[in-house]
Design a protein that fits this description.
Chains: A mainly alpha, B alpha/beta, C alpha/beta, D mainly alpha
Helix content of chain D: over 70%
Strand order of the largest sheet of chain D: 1-2
Strand order of the largest sheet of chain A: 1-4
Shape of chain D: globular
Radius of gyration of chain D: 20 Å
Number of helices of chain D: 13
Strand content of chain A: under 5%
Radius of gyration of chain A: 19 Å
Oligomer: heterotetramer
Structural class of chain D: mainly alpha
Number of strands of chain A: 4
Shape of chain A: globular
Number of strands of chain D: 2
Structural class of chain A: mainly alpha
Distance between the termini of chain A: 53 Å
Largest sheet of chain A: 2 strands, antiparallel
Largest sheet of chain D: 2 strands, antiparallel
């Protein structure tokens, strides 16, 4: 039983990271219905920004994460303006291909600039270990979990209680109507990209600290997993993305922990498909039938 | 002879009862009007009859070769195959396809060659395709769109799009034709033409027609019988004369001119 | 912007890139007779880490050769990126053939290699592979040990089965291990080949694999599997795989309190392993390799110094292997005194080569006869090296 | 029979035979060198993949990202049979086995998931494709991650014939009643169903045909390119195919063909740029989409009949 709870803790740490990436996916999707394939690469760049900040500016954990979030936010907005904005009225699949192009560009560009090899992420946290009731919890895990929860609460506050959050919800429901109500739709979309990318940046730094290894292709798989997490919880729904992220993290940990590490991805996909077949709009999503 | 019988039909959406215990009995080749204020449940009733929604309770029966067959809850395509065809309130043409293709698609259930015959271009393919083309053009002639057969549906003016929807519905060889607000957005002249067209179709195809319409002059001039819906309930039915003077109808339409 | 302008833009872009490429291909040459060597590596994509390390090794070898006044030819490396894709590897091989190379160094990994060999061999172009370690990789049909060897294909690395068996021998004989947990990669045939050979030899010597877990290359979270391993009993943990994952596994394993010896293949041999695992965690860690910095030979030390000076970092095993592979080809060309491919090929087949990863000749499968060294790490530093031969 | 020999069909036949003869001639004369021969082989495999995916995405409007999975099954069926039986016989038996497996798999995938819409369908099919790959990765007969090393048994003629047959099937399907039904699903599923079309049935048919043709592409790949391993059939492969389809124009088979050719040569051209090429490729994708979001051809098709029309019109004008 202890092993099971230990796996749960492992899964929560991994799930926190998926959840942070999934939030960005879900926000962008909610507002312009774009599967932003490049989001996983923003997360990767977040890790590199953190790496550079710690290595060359010799900053600590919190400054590193803030620098990385700020740079990722800027990057997200720049990408949106250059690559996605011209396609706002094109088919969604054209926008998707653009996102794939951006993803290739960021990956190959990072390989070119930073080199292809794996970098060891500098350790800025003491790795103290706490033993609680036979369970091993590291200081890093606590940092990851707490940072994730705090960021999510801030996000929830922004979306639900602030003016910009209201604008985001309005644009996501009906961007034309929002424009008529005097909302600056372009600015709102940019802010959504900024927030989503900042969260991915934070996830990048956290993952760097947790696993102490970063490389230019590290964003591909977590990007897909996070998208699955978002779909799983009901894409466009913020609590859904959090829930999906945690669920997938825990699921992977438990499957690998019990000897199925080769099938951990397969199990995630199977659960996803089953959920979608039973509840086509995701776990927390509402089934909206098209009006005839 | 009864062709469609609706008994105690009810549909709830959450707490809202959109269609409440509606009973109808429609004879062959009747021309029926379905009226009521906005939100009365007319389109929901259409959607129930054509299989888009499943009834919460109640029965819908269709006369199929002399037998009354329950069709409530059947899939829309199955209902269409049994002889019910419809148009949509908010026009649902295949916008990026040609006018001719719109009609051809609707003839699908009557095409007698399979997928493989299509892929390998067996003789049946050529024979059937020729037939389909001829019939589709004939239908377009009836709605006076044959000269526009190669245009994209989305490029037609509004009135013509409505007529194309009617032609498309006819292409399924229906026994009952449901028209959801066919005159919406038309000017008086177009409405007049439409009235003539509906009469022509009824005579030519021996088809039963049920239409939802807000244009009372149209309804009163062509419908043989009228059902009135309000808050999901059928509050009156009868001839146009009877409906005009029915106290509950006047109440429901208070402020609206009949 | 209309389409006309767009195409103008595209053309302009393409032209400027062509110009750029023209510049970069212009290496400094001194003599007229330039000998082209194809450098066919994974510079982007999943295996880019290994490909880039090898490219540097090859470039250094060519640079040093051109500085060597005893050599009669000037060498030029023609680089291509196969993007870690087998399909691309084929066209690149054909490009190299039409570029008129004498020989090709690369690719780094087995799958693109398998796609390349038939083409290069048919064109009688020599291939010296730095790191295609798969069992029977140099044979026409790798599933049939009796099939013909590709006449023009050589490799300078061990075969997987050889060093896997050597590690099992060392574990039982020297470490006195009986029960071993294996946590290996399934993404590469390298790791799978090692795993099979290790297990076979271990069982032959009376040992036992008590747990067999797997990961995929690119994974970063091993805590789940290691947590369940930590609750089992074993004398050693064998990690057949490369340093990128092995480094993290060692770090996470030590943190979870797995303090038995950790053993692995030459895939451990890179500075990245130390960076990822942390020097403190690298005690009681052993790996098989062909070359070691312990009591480094003069030749090896010279290579390490030259490499460090050139690139500002210590070479990984991949760079050393590529350095040897490239030097092997260059030396053969010098020795044959011609760029005639058949003659050079004959020279290689009978050559006694002395490189930074050991002195060797080729056996009948064009695989080197090198002795396996087992290196021990103490605080992340190579401490001792012993030679092992599997029985 | 008479109708089959109409003008357009005749011209297509001439076009195919002529194209084949021309390419064959250029190859044997050495004007098309080895590099470009391989590029052409790759393009042919990509054309088959693209049109089969186009049938699902472009014609029927079902966003599938699991195509690599079907290709994987085709490749491994042919690969395993090539190992077991060997030669062209083994290859063709492998193709048949691959088609049977793929038909079954496509049905298993299609029936539950095709109820899903848009991106939900995309991610569910992506999941199925990955599941297939993970199973192949863990099987013994497929030799796991190492994959299979195979002899080359396919030549240009076989590739070309398969491509023409695949094109013929997809184009004829699209221009038959069933194809019209599929297109109507793409345009408006509700209206389509109201017109008496069993939308589920036609989605499944299109999906199965697409899967079968994708399995040919996989088999041809295995028989032509020496090596197959599970790493080739990740979702990135599905995305690569999607890129070809979208770049050519969704719903346009002509577009898919042209796009496969153009991207194939762009890619080959970029090989000379060594490690800059993925960066350029990514930028090119973005630029192409920004400037031509509906792809090269949109939904337009090349037809000999419209060529005649234009020609006769010009004649009339000149008279």
């Amino acid at each position: 039983m202890t092993v099971f709870f230990q796996q749960l803790i492992n899964g929560l740490s991994l799930g926190s990271i998926y959840a942070l990436i999934a939030l960005g996916y879900t926000m962008v999707y909610g507002i312009i219905k774009l599967i932003n394939f490049a989001h996983g690469d923003i997360y990767m760049l977040g890790a590199y920004f953190g790496f550079l900040a710690i290595t060359y500016l010799h900053v600590g954990f919190f400054p590193a994460i803030l620098i990385s979030m700020a740079l990722c936010a800027i990057l997200g907005v720049v990408i949106e303006r250059i690559a996605y904005k011209p396609l706002r009225n094109a088919t969604r699949i054209a926008a998707l291909i653009t996102a794939i192009g951006v993803s290739y560009f960021l990956e190959a560009g990072t390989q070119q600039v930073m080199g292809t090899s794996v970098r060891a992420f500098p350790q800025v946290l003491n790795n103290q270990v706490f033993n609680i009731a036979g369970l091993r919890i590291t200081e890093q895990q606590i940092y990851i979990f707490v940072t994730t929860i705090v960021l999510m609460l801030i996000l929830q506050f922004i979306v639900k209680k602030t003016k910009i959050g209201r604008a985001m919800r309005a644009v996501s429901t009906d961007s034309d109507a929002a424009r008529l109500m005097g909302i600056n739709v372009d600015a709102t979309i940019s802010i959504t990209f900024a927030i989503g990318s900042a969260l991915a940046g934070a996830a990048g730094v956290l993952v760097g600290i947790y696993y102490s290894s970063i490389n230019p292709l590290m964003g591909m798989l977590p990007g897909i997993k996070a998208f699955i997490a978002a779909v799983f919880g009901g894409i466009g729904i913020i609590p859904g993305a959090m829930f999906g992220g945690f669920f997938i993290g825990i699921c992977e940990a438990i499957v690998s922990g019990y000897g199925g590490s080769l099938f951990k991805d397969a199990v995630v996909y199977i659960i996803l498909i089953v959920i979608l077949v039973i509840k086509p709009a995701g776990l927390l999503g509402k089934n909206v039938k098209e009006k005839v | 002879m009864t062709i469609l019988k609706v008994s105690d039909l009810t549909r709830n959406f959450g707490g809202l009862c959109a269609v409440n215990n509606v009973n109808m009995e429609i004879d062959e080749q009747e021309l029926i009007g379905l009226i009521g204020p906005n939100g009365a449940g007319k389109t929901t009733l259409f959607n129930l009859l054509t299989g888009v929604y499943e009834p919460s309770s109640g029965k819908i029966e269709l006369n199929v070769d002399g037998q009354m067959k329950s069709i409530g809850g059947m899939k829309p395509y199955a209902v269409t195959r049994l002889g019910l065809a419809r148009t949509f309130q908010n026009i649902r043409l295949f916008k990026d396809l040609s006018v001719l293709d719109n009609v051809k698609i609707a003839m699908h259930k009557n095409i007698k060659y399979g997928v493989l015959a299509g892929i390998f271009r067996l003789p049946a393919f050529y024979a059937e395709e020729e037939k389909v083309e001829k019939e589709a053009i004939n239908l377009l002639k009836i709605v006076r769109l044959d000269h526009k057969k190669d245009e994209f549906a989305k490029n037609l003016p509004y009135g013509e799009q409505r007529r194309l929807e009617i032609a498309r519905a006819l292409a399924t060889h229906p026994k009952i034709l449901f028209l959801d607000e066919p005159a919406a957005g038309m000017n008086p002249q177009e409405t007049g033409e439409l009235t003539a067209l509906i009469h022509e179709i009824k005579e030519k195809f021996k088809v039963t027609i049920i239409l939802i319409e807000h244009d009372m002059s149209l309804v009163m001039s062509i419908c043989e019988r009228i059902y009135v819906l309000d808050y999901g309930k059928c509050i009156a039915s009868g001839s146009p004369e009877q409906i005009k003077n029915h106290p509950r109808v006047i109440e429901a339409y208070l402020g609206e001119e009949i | 912007m209309d389409s006309k302008n767009f195409f103008k833009l595209l053309t302009a872009g393409a032209l400027s890139l062509t110009a750029l490429a023209g510049c970069s291909n212009d290496g400094g040459g001194t003599t007229d007779e330039k000998v082209s060597i194809g450098l066919h590596y994974e510079l982007k994509g999943d295996a880019a880490d290994y490909g880039n390390a090898e490219l540097r090794g090859s470039q250094l070898a060519i640079k040093l050769a051109n500085e060597n006044e005893d050599y009669q030819f000037t060498y030029e490396g023609i680089e291509y990126d196969n993007g870690s894709s087998e399909n691309e590897a084929i066209t690149i091989s054909q490009r190299l053939i039409s570029d008129g190379v004498v020989g090709v160094i690369g690719p780094s990994t087995s799958a693109p290699s398998a796609a390349t060999y038939p083409i290069l061999n048919d064109a009688q172009t020599i291939v010296v592979s730095p790191s295609a370690t798969a069992n029977n990789q140099t044979l026409v049909d790798p599933d049939d040990p009796n099939s013909d060897v590709y006449e023009y294909v050589y490799r300078v690395c061990f075969e997987d089965s050889y060093q896997g068996a050597a590690m099992a021998q060392f574990a039982v004989d020297t470490l006195g291990v009986q029960k071993v947990a294996v946590y290996g990669s399934v993404s590469s045939d390298y790791a799978k080949g090692l795993n099979t050979a290790f297990t076979e030899q271990l069982e032959k010597l009376g040992g036992q694999v008590v747990a067999n877990e797997s990961y995929q290359d690119g994974d970063t979270d091993f805590s789940a599997v290691l947590t369940s391993l930590a609750s089992q009993e074993f004398d050693a943990l064998y990690i057949p795989g490369y340093y990128n994952e092995a480094g993290l596994i060692i770090q996470q394993a030590r943190e979870l309190g797995i303090d038995c010896p950790i053993i692995g293949p030459d895939g451990f041999d890179a500075n990245t392993l130390v960076e990822l695992a942390g020097a403190d965690n690298l005690n009681d860690v052993y790996f098989t390799t062909a070359y070691t910095t312990v009591d480094a030979s003069e030749k090896l030390q010279a290579f390490i110094d030259a490499y460090t000076e050139e690139y500002g970092e210590a070479p990984a095993m991949f760079a050393a292997l590529a350095f040897d592979a490239t030097n092997l080809l260059i030396e053969a060309i010098e020795k044959a005194g011609t760029t005639d491919k058949a003659t050079v090929n004959e020279t290689i087949a009978n050559m006694e080569f002395s490189g930074v990863t050991g002195d060797f000749t080729f056996d009948e499968t064009h695989t080197p006869n090198k002795s396996v060294l087992v290196v021990e790490l103490v605080d992340g530093v190579q401490e001792t090296a012993v030679s092992v031969t599997p029985e | 029979m008479k109708k089959m020999l109409n003008k357009a069909n005749l011209y297509w036949l001439l076009f195919c035979v002529g194209g084949y003869a021309l390419l064959m001639g250029l190859m044997s004369a050495g004007i098309i060198d080895a590099v470009n021969q391989t590029v052409i082989q790759t393009i042919i495999v990509n054309i088959i993949l693209a049109i089969s995916l186009n049938l699902i995405i472009g014609i029927t409007g079902q966003f599938s990202l699991g195509h690599a999975g079907f290709m994987c099954v085709g490749a491994y069926s042919a690969g395993v049979m090539l190992k077991q039986i060997g030669g062209l016989n083994g290859f063709f038996i492998g193709i048949l086995i691959g088609m049977v497996i793929n038909a079954v798999l496509a049905l298993i995938v299609a029936i539950p998931t095709l109820r899903l819409k848009g991106d939900y369908l995309a991610i569910a099919t992506l999941g199925f494709g990955e599941i297939i790959r993970i199973i192949v990765l863990n099987m013994d007969i497929t030799n796991g991650a190492a994959g299979l090393v195979l002899p080359r048994v396919v030549d240009f003629t076989i590739l070309f014939v398969f491509m023409v047959v695949a094109l013929l099937i997809v184009v004829n399907f699209t221009r038959s009643a069933a194809g019209r039904a599929c297109i109507s699903i793409r345009e408006d599923e509700i209206a389509s169903e109201a017109m008496g079309i069993n939308t589920t049935k036609y989605k499944v048919i299109a999906f199965v045909i697409g899967a079968l043709i994708a399995s040919w592409a996989g088999a041809l790949y295995a028989g032509n390119f020496y090596v197959i391993n599970p790493g080739m059939f990740t979702y990135s492969k599905s995305i690569d195919i999607l890129v070809i389809v979208v770049f050519g124009g969704m719903g346009s088979m002509t577009g898919s063909v042209i796009s496969a050719v153009v991207l194939g040569f762009i890619n080959s051209f970029l090989q000379s740029f060594s490690n800059m090429r993925m960066i350029i490729y990514g930028l090119a994708l973005v630029m192409i989409m920004v400037f031509r979001p509906s792809g090269l051809l949109g939904t337009r098709e090349f037809k000999f009949s419209s060529l005649f029309k234009r020609f006769t019109k010009k004649k009339e004008a000149s008279q």
